[in-house]
Amino acid sequence: MSLPAVERTLIVVKPDATAKGHVGDIISRFEKRGLKPVEIRMQTVSRARAEQFYSVHKDKPFFGDLVSFISSGPSVGVILEGTDAIAVVRLMIGSTRSWTAAPGTIRGDFATGLLDNAIHASDSKDSFDWESKTYFS
Ligand code: CMP
Fold first, then answer.
1. CA distance 38 to 3
2. Which atom of ligand 1 is nearest to the CA of 115?
3. CB-based contacts of 28: which residues, under 8 Å, 6+ apart?
4. Which residues' Cβ are closer than 6 Å to ligand 1?
5. Options 120, 122, 131, 132, the catalytic residue
6. Ligand 1 centre from 2 Cα, in Å?
7. Which atom of ligand 1 is nearest to the CA of 70?
């Protein structure tokens, strides 16, 4: 049986984890798992860019808080490449609701809340295409 395709995904280390100095630890976890960083950018995203990035959530009641939080300080976007990267990375980051995230997952180890949940990762090829274009443009 052949391996699943090599694909790309995007992670964003959010302002909470960046401020606490976890960027290196988080990227290192992916490298140890065999996922290669192929593009990295640190920036404080503007509100306009944040609104585009999270536009899939624009009708949710928490959209304003989400945009404010992600644009509140430096974040680090990394495009990772590897076998089945989208699914592997989603497993590694753990539950969005970080208080339920398993120990050993990135959110289980570094997140403290729902907005401040340490990391975002694309959940599909379509979201990777949109989010990487938006974060890196
Ligand atoms: P993320 O993976 O970046 O995708 C969207 C984000 O919205 C999510 O992580 C959480 O940080 C945030 N989020 C999800 N649900 C809620 C909620 N009910 N209230 C506030 N923020 C939320």
1. 21
2. 11
3. none
4. 57, 62, 65-66, 96, 114-115, 117, 120
5. 120
6. 36
7. 3
Q: What is the mean pLDDT of residues 23-38?
A: 98
Give per-residue pLDDT as tens, 85-134: 999 999 999 999 999 999 999 999 999 999 999 999 999 999 999 999 99
Query: Taking the complete model, does pTM exceed 0.85, yes or no?
Result: yes
Comparing CA positions, the residue from 92, 88, 121, 89 lying closest to residue 109 is: 92
120 noted as active-site residue: yes
Q: Tokens 């295409």 sit at which residue?
A: 129
Q: How far is the CA of 115 from the centre of ligand 1 (A)?
A: 6
Domains of the chain: 6-136 (3.30.70.141)
What is the chain written as a DSSP string?
Answer: -PPPPEEEEEEEE-HHHHHTT-HHHHHHHHHHTTPEEEEEEEE---HHHHHHHTGGGTTSTTHHHHHHHHTSS-EEEEEEEEETHHHHHHHHH--SSGGGSPBTBHHHHH--SSS--SEEE--SHHHHHHHHHHHH-
What is the pLDDT at residue 13?
99
